[in-house]
Sequence to fold (611 residues):
Amino acid sequence: MDIPFKFKIQEKIKSSFVNEFQDEMVDYSEYFFTTKMMNTVSEDLMIPITENRDIIMEFNSSENNARIYMDTLDYYQNSICKEDDNGNIYIEESFEPIILYKNSSTNSSNTDYYPFVPGTYQIYVTCGSEKYYAYIKVNPKQITDVELGIMREEIEEMIENLAHMLVSNESSTKMDKELEKKESISSQLLILAQNCNKIIPIVNEIKLTPRSKVINHYQLEDSSKARIIDQETVKHRLKQMDVKKRLLVPKRLITRNLPENQILVEIVRYLKKVTRTAIQYTEQMIPHIEYDTNRLSGGKYPRPENERTIYLKQIESLRENRLKMKKLYNAFNFLLQSDWVKEVNGTSSNAVGLHLDGRYRFLHQISRELKNTKQTIQLNADFSYRWKRTDKLYEMWGFIKLLKALQSPTLNFKPVKGWIYDDKEIFTTWQVPLLEEGTIISLQGAGNKTINLVYDKPISYDRKTTTFDDPLYSRFPNNRPDTRIDFYENDIYEASFIIDFKYRPATAIGNLGVSDYNNEWKAYKQLLHYSKFDSEFVSKSKDYIVPDKISRNKTPIAGVWVIFPNSINNNKSNKEIIKKDWLTKVPYSPGDDSEKIENLIFEALKYELFI
Fold:
């Protein structure tokens, strides 16, 4: 096919800590088609780029009027974008290279570039009256696509579970009539229980036989081997004579990346989420009713037996429904783990196949019926912004993992203040507020121990402004760790652990053998600065007043932990926690066992602080 423009991409990956590099422009012009092939293009015909790498594009045509449009292009660098008469954002052709993204470390100008978010994006070029379509696949840099999905799901699940626990605990301290707030969950439980015997066979059948479509995947092949030719083959032959006498021939492939499957996956994820909430509801309600049943039997004047029987039937019904919900949850989970689901990417708002297939139509109707009941706990819409930055997503995921680990039976700290724990609106809006920068969550442990878990809060440069609850100050430029743990015992400040989440390879963090400043390792220097934070409050109580002169105390920093994903370097040694002096390197990827973080904190408190 004769493409009247050139589309080339250079992905720069050369650096001081990576041996391989690529400085060549790769020509992807042949990846464009004149017909729209949404949901049918295989991954080997998608233009691959990697997030957070310098990207340069060459885009020009023989007709001097070409424009390129891309999904979500309005997020990206404004100086290269223009707006057409319909309000659509585009980049016009240029005979000069166009910078699509430049890292802050390599960016000498004042221009801010918005990083490409992992995912698949449709792009098209207008050239004259013709449109040419292609797809860009943005790959995550430090984790796999599967791990990225796990991380997003875990954040949503962990936050909503924490919020449900909070709401449930609050409800359990009030009158029984307050439990009516859970009417929506009860209604959803009833809908799912009534349809359980229909849903499970349908889900299992879809898992084995999802909707699919045979497509033509075109590739150049020696003319002597070509068995099938069609109209596209003839067009290509007439417009572009191949010097090697190859033909663009179709190869029959089966794809499941269809609009109805895209919608179905979202439906099943929603059903899994509602089912999980329903399971929690039954587990919370059964003890309440058992308590009431025992109360009816006791006392000086026990109630009639028929009243107690009603309660016992409710308990039996809840137990049966809990079993049904667990079966549903497993069915939804097994479907989402199917190999064909990994083929499905992108989103679709409508699909004819959804209504033509009775199985798909039934699940769609169930999900709509569930959504028409009252609200369950949802994430604040502002969380969606964090989803667009994988580095921020990893940082938030790590913080929530720490919060969850502190509440585990191993550590047994209970949150008492901060974020959702003193936000009373959650009990009326059922919406989890955004985890803001500077958030401090206080957790209470046994033996009058307290931990302040601090999220993304700058450390003061002014010693005199420090307080008992914000005890650290810095004399070095790097003063904003992602997280820190401030530890108190018997109302005395003891020490802090500094935690940073690095969405980068381990080799970019620095050498544990380095004991002084090293210009080559910027990340290591940052961590070294964190280790030199100071405090006037070590072994002091809340009444202590910061003196005018610096007092000589022991260092408040019990350790610096750097946590980073490590699925790309997948050998055994790279998965082990390595500690040397003040720095602990912790490889931790989505899907890794939660006990790794629990044990890290437990051993740090035991051996560093001797508690």
Observations:
- The two ends are 72 Å apart (CA to CA).
- Confidence is low (pLDDT under 50) at residues 15-21, 172-181, 513-520.
